[in-house]
Design a protein that fits this description.
The structure is a homodimer. By secondary structure, chain A is an alpha/beta fold. Helix content of chain A is 22%, strand content 25%. The first copy, chain A, has eight helices and 17 strands. In chain A, helix 1 crosses helix 2 and helix 1 crosses helix 7. The mean pLDDT of chain A is 95. Chains A and B meet through helix 5, helix 6 and strand 15 of A and helix 5, helix 6 and strand 15 of B.
């Protein structure tokens, strides 16, 4: 256990990320100081939200500063404590924290969150009870305020955040239409997530028309994870007083601004009195206890689920990340990295 | 006084409206029934907001249903009562109501608003104290909530609504940047409206860069009267928590959706936590008394003014309307129609 496998940014992707985007930069395993814990990562998810900070675009907002070339990449993970110098943690405890794409990480007992692995699998902390679940919950509750009977459209409805957002809206008594690409995803949306309607955007010639057919009363809330083309197509189907939440823009992250599709149907903002807001999940941290209580209760009660694909092997991380952008994944993709060490 | 000159929609403009868009369709002067009043129009403003309903685009929202071919056009006017069958009105009283582009109109005493022509000129009811002023006030107060010290950008700052919005924001203690096209308009914005900065969008190579220079702290509120190109250029200059109000889209009204500029910089919605809302002024009618009280007080106190261009002659209406879209007008354009009758 002397070597710590790490993945760092090798070169900034121009367009889609690929296997050359990252490179290994192994280092010795770090040692915890007093008050710290050493964690061995087990589950490392891949997340499209990492894509923007791989580009060298400085926008003057701390949370979106580009990752430096050669810097460790990654975000939240789940692992087990190996060595603890914090009395609140013991070896074997499951924790989640921002421990990045590496085998071992030292972290403070203040930021690590201990997981009750008896109640729910540790991977839940990276999905429904993690940043994706909190994003779905906050985007709906804090920015869109869904009411029972309203019509909610979720794009990338088979994706991680989309899967959760669709079910939350359904659990709140909304009529939910999921938009996804391909029949397999639509089947998942209908059968596993139990949304009211699934629209295969690859199979319909005109998404806007399909939406208007599926939502004769109009769309009250659009929860978008895809980007401008989707918002533009759905705008004419919005209902008076509708709310649009921009949560993710997976289709646009790799495009320079001039290359992105444009939103043109903005006249609908006036005629339908629409509101569009961008979500940054951690702005809503004060609501997390309430969110986690509700998300946990729904999960234990079988009213919230998330398909997980677990890939074995540390070196699968770059490929798994790249596949997020080619439309192949359903639900959450995690890489299990603790069983392939030499 | 037997003939009532009227202008009706002759053909739907493809692109900019012109002199062939409207035609005369004179009729006998109408007679008021019990409870009604007959008004002779004096001041008839031209307004870019009439452009959308000249197109045959049905969007299923009552207030934006297309005007029928052959139907009377127009909107709010100011005139004098000629004959009254409502005890609250007497001949000679100045009133404002939705009396359209015609010499004479019969209206109900319930919708007509009597004007105190001693206190303010009747044209004030069509500008600062009319729909333009209420739009500026409601867009700022109800959709953007400006706070003293915030930076507000107003586009089409020399236009009717823009002129008023800029001064309201200034009066509320905001730093106000006006964007206008051409040096004459910018001089008006600086000298007559006393905004902090005027940017001539024809003279700067990159509006976004000019905005960032003029607003080193970023833009808290964008009050847009122009359309997508303007919003897209200004998005990267927005500050965290910024609000965008879509009030008018004068540059886009005559373009089919596919021809309009697109808004591409939507990543700023997430990184800056922006909110964009469309304004429909009459949604905020409950606030009108408060708005009118403040707007009247500021006008009487010399803290709110609006350049008026008064053109003589009924048949000038189509041309005056067309010129709204070619960037030639400053402030409010009104046509005085009572002195050129044969």
């Amino acid at each position: 256990m002397s070597l710590n496998r790490r993945l760092v940014l090798a070169r900034r992707p121009s367009g889609l990320p690929d296997l050359t985007t990252f490179r290994r930069d192994d280092r010795p395993v770090p040692r915890p100081a007093e008050g710290e814990i050493l964690v061995r990562n087990v589950y490392v998810p891949v997340d499209p939200g990492m894509r923007p900070v791989l580009s060298d675009v400085r926008i003057g907002v701390d949370e979106f500063e580009p990752i430096a070339l050669g810097a460790l990449v990654g975000y939240m993970t789940a692992g087990q404590v190996v060595e603890s110098r914090d009395p609140r943690f013991a070896p074997g405890d499951w924790v989640t924290d921002r421990l990045m794409w590496q085998d071992f990480a030292v972290t403070s007992g203040r930021t690590a969150r201990k997981l009750d692995a008896q109640a729910l699998p540790p991977t839940a902390s990276l999905g429904i009870l993690g940043v994706p679940g909190l994003s779905a919950w906050s985007g709906l509750h804090c920015l869109a305020d869904p009411k029972p009977g309203e019509t909610v459209v979720v794009t990338s409805a088979a994706g991680t955040v989309g899967s959760i957002a669709g079910q939350i809206a359904r659990n709140l008594g909304c009529r939910v239409v999921g938009v996804a690409g391909g029949e397999a995803k639509c089947r998942y949306v209908r059968e596993q997530l139990a949304l009211d309607v699934a629209i295969d955007r690859h199979a319909v010639p005109d998404l806007g028309a399909a939406l208007r057919d599926a939502c004769p009363q109009g769309v009250d809330i659009l929860f978008d994870n895809v980007g401008n083309a989707m918002v533009d197509a759905i705008l004419p189907a919005m209902r008076r007083g509708g709310r649009i939440v921009i949560c993710g823009q997976t289709a646009d992250y790799h495009l320079a601004p001039a290359e992105r599709p444009g939103i043109r149907n903005t006249n609908c903002f006036v005629t339908r009195r629409l509101t569009m807001r961008g979500l940054f999940v951690h702005d809503h941290a004060a609501e997390y206890p309430r969110a986690l209580e509700q998300l946990t209760r729904w999960t234990l009660g079988g009213r919230l689920r998330l398909e997980e694909t677990i890939i074995e092997g540390f070196d699968q991380l770059p490929g798994a990340f790249a596949r997020l952008f080619t439309g192949e994944t359903i639900g959450r993709t995690l890489v299990r990295i603790d069983r392939d060490r030499a």
